[in-house]
Amino acid sequence: MDFALIAQTTAEAASDPSQLFSDLAPPLQVAVLLGALSFATAMLVSVTAFTRIIIVLSFVRRALSTQEIPPNQVMMGLSLFLTLFVMAPTFEKIHDNAVIPLLEAQEAAGPEEEPTFGFVDAWKIASEELKVFMLKNTRTNDLGLFFELSETPPPSQRMDTPLKIAVPAFIISELKTAFIMGFCIYIPFLLIDLVISTILMALGMMMMPPVVVSTPCKLLLFVLVDGWQLISKALVASFA
C-alpha cells in the first residue's frame, strides 16, 4: 500500500471539500446529505428564534381548545417564517461578512492556490454573529449557571462567552421566556372557562361539558381582538 499516495489524496480532499463529496459512493453521499439536514434542523432549534415562537404558538392553540386547528404544518410554517423575519438582520450580516467573502476568495484563488478566506474563517464569522443574537436574548443568571457547571470563570466581556456555554444558556432562557408568554396567554382564556362553568352550574346544566360552550366564545374573542396579529407582534417585539 502506497501511504504517500493515500496522504496526498487525503490532503487534496481536505483542501477541496466538494471533491471529497463527489468522490464518495452515491449511498454515502445520501447519508452525508441527510446528516447535514439533521444538523441544520438542530441549528434551527438551538441558535435561532424558532424555539420560543413554536412554543408560544402551541400555547395559543391549546388555550383556544381547538385541538389540531390550526394544523401542525401551518404552525410549523408560520413559526419558520416568523423565525426568518426575526433572524433576517443576523442572516444578512452572515451573508455579507461570511458567505460573499468566501465565494469571492474561492473564485479569486487558482486551482492550486489556497483561498485567502476559507471555510474556517466563514464559520468563525457566522458563529460570532449568531452568538451576538443569542447573548442579547439570554439571561445573565442562565449564563452564570453554565459557567458554574463547567467550573469556568466568566469572561470580562460578555462576547467572549464560548459557544458551549452560550447555546445551552440561550435554550433554557428561550424556554423560560416562552412559558412566561404562554402563561400570560392562558389567563384570559382560563377566565372564560371559569365564567362559562359558573353559568352552566347556575343553570343546572352540570352534565354539559363547559368546553362545548367556551370554545366558540374563545374563538369569537380571539377574532375580535385580531389575536394572530397581536401574537405575531408580541413575538417579534420580544426579541432584542
UniProtKB/TrEMBL annotation:
One of its GO terms (biological process) is protein secretion. Its main location: membrane. Keywords: Bacterial flagellum, Bacterial flagellum biogenesis, Bacterial flagellum protein export, Cell membrane, Cell projection, Cilium, Flagellum, Membrane, Protein transport, Transmembrane, Transmembrane helix, Transport. The chain crosses the membrane at residues 37-60, 72-91, 178-207. GO terms for cellular component: bacterial-type flagellum basal body; plasma membrane. It is a multi-pass membrane protein. InterPro entries: FliP, T3SS_IM_P. Coiled coil: none annotated. It is found in: Cell membrane; Bacterial flagellum basal body. The keyword Membrane applies. PANTHER family: FLAGELLAR BIOSYNTHETIC PROTEIN FLIP. Belongs to the FliP/MopC/SpaP family. Plays a role in the flagellum-specific transport system. This is Flagellar biosynthetic protein FliP. It comes from Stieleria neptunia.
